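This section describes the prediction task in plain terms. A model, or a person checking by hand, is given the sequence of a single protein chain and must write out its three-dimensional structure as a string of tokens. No templates, partner chains or ligands are provided. The sample shown here is typical of the held-out split.
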Amino acid sequence: MLKSSFALFTNDVETTSIWFNALRDETGLKVLKEGMPVLLDIYQTYNIKTTFFFTGYIARHFPDVVKMVIKDGHEVASHGKSHLKENGFDVMPFERQKRHLAETKKLLEDISGQEVVSFRAPALRVNEYTAPALIETGYKIDSSVASQRFDFFLSFGGIRKLKWLTAPRLPYYTAQDSLFKKGEGPLIEVPLSALFLPYVGTTMRIFPGITKIVRQGIHLESSRLNGKPIVFDIHPNEFIDESDEPRIISRRSNNPISYLLQDFFRSQLKVKNLGGNAILLYKKQIEFFAKRDYQFTTLKAYCKQNDFI
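The expected answer:
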């Protein structure tokens, strides 16, 4: 190997119900009572430290969901104010982004007692104002870019996400006005792992066979070529099961094509292997890198160890 290889297994914590394709307080409670304990138990078993990105909404309504990660030494990070479509960072103007970032940072710091320096945008939706808004509100690390990933327009903000295809693969300091480009700014971008298809919990559950191929590719890149850190993204709501409730798919778009691709078709795919099956699949991902002596750490610790911050 060129040098130590790193595996950053990160977590986005929100009230999104995969089963209902909607935000629900009932799901937030299940995340607190069921999903988070499963995740934390997995990380204790493998002695892993990770980064948890919390929305301000779930932190405010269920503060224990933040407090429970502290004792195990995990990093608390921001996932924006909420996962509401109108709170996407690709549609908010500069001042509103700054307000959301500052409010969520303070809330998470008050609950956790930790300095919050890392951010990931809800649904990875960002625009030209996001980098300067992060810098002005005191964030040092972003992980909202998935270099060389293509979503086939199945997610919101698909047009802007085409910029992922040309974004640098290795961690980089961003331009002052763009998270997708290298620059002289103080903000470090740690891209999520992808080889055209994303290396995330959703893909792991829907296409476990293809995920093995993606995983092997990014492992070879990290261990043999350039030392790029593995950055995986999963959600505690992937480990809960709400299928005992009648399913009604919420419609988030009035555009019939967007509804068909982003709501109906995507929601049918995303429920595969939820709950117990997701636990088994996730453990296999961790064991793959553990057997190859990867260092499991948080975004903040990785950036400090590699002199980015």
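For orientation: The mean pLDDT is 91.
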